[in-house]
Specification:
single chain; Arc Repressor Mutant, subunit A; 2 domains; about 55% helix
Length: about 130
């Protein structure tokens, strides 16, 4: 029986890449079950499948996962994409023009207020905060 205090018990994963690949290869090429591999190498029962996912190797009893593409997930036509991008560009340019006008109006309002009221509204550069 393998206990925590056994000399063969691994308390943490300290397998090198080569050792992991060798264990995976042994699991895939022999008739040894996952349970037998777990007992042989003193690892958790999810360790080998986890390594296989990490290295992109499918499990032997699993078919490769292929998600069929529906109409919604297919790539849009290039023509549609270009038209959408051009429309978005026009929207952004219009928004930029509005913001420039707003900025000009605010700056003009500050300048008029400073002249008429003879007070400094803008913060002076280098002023202490």
């Amino acid at each position: 029986m393998l206990t925590i205090h056994s000399p063969n018990y691994r308390t943490k994963n300290n397998f090198s890449y080569e050792e992991k690949m060798a264990i995976i290869q042994e699991y895939l090429t022999t008739e040894i079950s996952l349970t037998q591999m777990v007992k042989k190498y003193h690892i958790g029962w999810t360790t080998i499948p986890k390594w296989m996912r990490k290295f992109g190797i499918p499990m032997p009893n699993e078919a490769p996962v292929q998600i069929p593409m529906s109409k919604e997930t297919k790539k849009p036509e290039k023509k549609d994409t270009v038209e959408a991008l051009e429309a978005r560009l026009q929207e952004l340019q219009a928004e930029l023009d509005r913001e420039k006008l707003k900025n000009l109006a605010l700056n003009t309002m500050i300048e008029v207020a400073e002249e008429e009221l003879q007070i400094d509204i803008r913060k002076k550069p280098g002023a202490k905060q």
